[in-house]
Amino acid sequence: MCAVGYAEGGLLARELGAWQTISWALVAAAPLMFALSAFALTEHPPTATLAEWGAFGYLAVVSMFLGFFAWYRGLALGPMAQVSQVQLAQPVLSLAWAALLLHERLGWATMLGGVVVIGCALFAVRARNRVRT
Predict the structure, then answer these.
(1) Is 10:72 a contact under the CB 8 Å cutoff?
(2) What is the structure's pLDDT at 129?
(3) Percent of the chain with pLDDT strictly greater than 70
(4) DSSP labels for the chain?
(5) How many whole angstroms separate alpha carbon 56 and alpha carbon 121?
(6) C-alpha span between 133 and 131 (Å, rounded)
C-alpha cells in the first residue's frame, strides 16, 4: 500500500506540486488520525519532558512534513520508478551517518548487509534501464 501511495503521490505532485500533495494528504487523513489519537490519549496519556516534546515536534515538522516536500518533488521530476529506488539506500546511509557522527559501532554483518542492499538497488535501477533501451 505504501508503494501505491508513493506512486499516486508522485503523480499528484506533477499536477498539484509537492507541498500541496503532502498537505492535502494530511487534510484527508486528519479525521481518522484525530479519532485514533483521541482514543490513544484516553487509553495512554502522554508523559514527556520539554526536550522530548521538542524532539517530537522537530521530527513531525522537519523530518516528516518538510522532508516530504523534497521527496514528492523528486518523484514528480524524475521517472518515479528510478527515483523511488533512492529510498532503498536510506537505511544504509542512516547507519553510515550514525557510525560517522555518533561513533556507533558497525559489525561486519551490518556492513555486509548494507553493501548487499545498495548492490541490489543499483542492480534494480540498471536492469530497468537496460529493458528500456
Answers:
(1) yes
(2) 65
(3) 95
(4) -HHHHHHHHHHHHHHH-HHHHHHHHHHHHHHHHHHHHHHHHHHS-----HHHHHHHHHIIIIIIIIHHHHHHHHHHHS-HHHHHGGGGGHHHHHHHHHHHHH-----HHHHHHHHHHHHHHHHHHHHHHHHH-
(5) 31
(6) 6
pLDDT exceeding 90 applies to what percent of the chain? 54
Nearest 5°: the CA angle 76, 124, 69 is: 25
Q: Which residue has the cell 500500500?
A: 1
* All cell numbers assigned to 44: 495512554
Quick check: 128 pLDDT over 80? Answer: no
How far apart are alpha carbons 37 and 23 in whole angstroms?
A: 19
Cβ contacts of 63 within 8 Å, gap of 6 or more: none
Q: Alpha-carbon distance 6 to 84, whole Å?
A: 8
**56 with 48: CB under 8 angstroms?**
yes
C-alpha cell at 30: 486528519
